[in-house]
Amino acid sequence: MSEAPPSIPAVETSGLTRSYGSMLALDNLNLTVQRGDLFGFIGSNGAGKTTSLRILATFLQPSSGTARVLGSDVVTDPDAVRRKIGYMPDFFGVYKDMEVTEYLDFFGACYRLPAAKREKTIGDVLELVGLTEKKGALIGALSRGMQQRIGLARVLIHDPDLLLLDEPASGLDPRARIEMMAILLELQRLGKTIIISSHILSELQTLCNRCAIIERGKLIYTGPVSGASGDLADTTIMWVTTPEADRALPILIALPDVREGEVVDGKVKLTLKHKDADASQIAVAMVQNGLRLTGLREEEIGLEEVFLRVTKGETQ
Ligand SMILES: Nc1ncnc2c1ncn2[C@@H]1O[C@H](COP(=O)(O)OP(=O)(O)OP(=O)(O)O)[C@@H](O)[C@H]1O
Ligand SMILES: [Mg+2]
After folding, report:
1. How far is the CA of 243 from the centre of ligand 2 (A)?
2. Run of H or E residues at 306
């Protein structure tokens, strides 16, 4: 566990900026990730996720601004940062002709784990990622999902406090993704802080407690995952249940706060003009027009929907 006091965040960036030539890949990013967070890092292709993670992992220098990992500066104290993090890049070479144990032993040695301790540590991390029975297998003979899990085992070998995982579930089938998510939850339970970038927003929504959405290198949102929909959604969708949906539809569409409506599966789906619109007018209109109202429900807007609305496909 880290020697940093608990009040120090896992990650804190201030004005973090990175350009490639004239291309601004990361623009003044101010981001805080608290200890113990399972933090989703969300953005379209080219938004700057990998750039940010590589800076935090000390593989890339910022152009300006600062980033601290558990209190250590990534530029002035990279060795301290590396000891505290496990970085799983989006593409990592797997040493296909190595056996699983050999491979993990190699990385254990890189982190200067004493040889006597390595065997137990390798056993522990293999158990965590559910691959104990593949100890002696050649990495090249493992499935993609298993190789991803070996990649995760590798970044756990020196027991880092912070995991930086760049799309760890990409290319995995649904079952392998669910298994990967379960492993991440277990790691969070064990006290690790995890930052995970991914495009599979529905999964991040159930997995993560907090998230950041970036677009063209700029931070659009950071906060609780559940707050993202409330803060960022520009409309509310209401579902009206009534046995007279077809008669209700034109009446409800005519209401001042309703933008559009349609009948879906026998229910009236209304999109309101703004998220603070007063939905009670729907109930009033139903009653005034002698229509039976058996249900009125606000639709929960998922992270995916919010993301699509706020980013409008702005990639670079
Ligand atoms: N080595 C590089 N040289 C020049 N431009 C780069 C380099 N690496 C990244 N970029 C540019 O920086 C921007 C951010 O890229 P980055 O890889 O950080 O995005 P990302 O959010 O990880 O995208 P993806 O979802 O596709 O992985 C992109 O416009 C990309 O083209
Ligand atoms: Mg990337």
Report:
1. 49
2. helix 303-311
